[in-house]
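Bug #77: duplicate submission created two jobs. Keeping one. Sequence:
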Amino acid sequence: HGPLEVFSREAIEVWHSGREQCLTYFTRLCSGDCFWGEDMFIDQCLDKVLKVQRDDEWQLLVEDHCDPPAGWQSCEDTSKVAFHPFKSNEGFRKCLAGSGVQSHVQLA
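Kept job's structure:
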């Protein structure tokens, strides 16, 4: 899923050696550009063309479009590794503070 993707070294090596094959395949399939983001392209490339196994771990991510629990924006659930999306600096700062992470990130 776009907000959080983890690839094994082997998956990246397969993708690197087969990416041109994916470009050719999808250019033909879509009669040109498929107009996908990079997350959809690499997902479809690895799955449909290069046949790399994907293991989904849905419990790692909380996303507002996927029936999140109440209060998820506080980012206090330590069983999660990512919370998505935060479209404003204020929302991101509140999440960061709620997570207990110390950060020196400068936001505009």
